[in-house]
Amino acid sequence: KKNVRLVDGNxxxxxxxEVHHKGQWGTVCENFWDMTDAAVVCRExxxxxxxxxxxxxxxxxxxGPIWMGGVLCTGSESTLKxxxxxxxxxxxxxxxxxxxxxxx
Length: 104
Description:
InterPro entries: SRCR, SRCR-like_dom_sf. Keywords: Disulfide bond, Glycoprotein, Repeat, Signal. This is SRCR domain-containing protein. It comes from Cirrhinus mrigala (Mrigala). There is one protein chain. The chain is mainly beta. The protein has a single domain (about 5-104), classed as Mac-2 Binding Protein, CATH 3.10.250.10. It has one helix at about 35-45, and strands at about 5-10, 15-20, 25-30, 50-55, 65-70, 70, 85, 100-104. Strands 1, 2, 3, 4, 5 and 8 form a 6-stranded mixed β-sheet that branches. A two-stranded antiparallel sheet has the order 6-7. β1 (about 5-10) and β2 (about 15-20) form a beta hairpin. The radius of gyration is 12 Å and the shape is globular.
């Protein structure tokens, strides 16, 4: 079972990034979010290469917890959960800063 999903996009491989943690789906904050991080999400979901890495709740605001922020993937990780993050990673985060990806 995948611990990441894309929701509210126009296809299975585009949408707001949500991660499953402690039995609940939540979102990812946009600080440091980039194409390297998006590439890991696309790979984890068998969705090819990233086309765009978006902040600002591009596909709408999520609800529930904000589980991750300051995500610092190297690009080689097999899952988003394996990526490191910066300290204070969700400080100041709100759902209007939820990230999205569009994969190929």
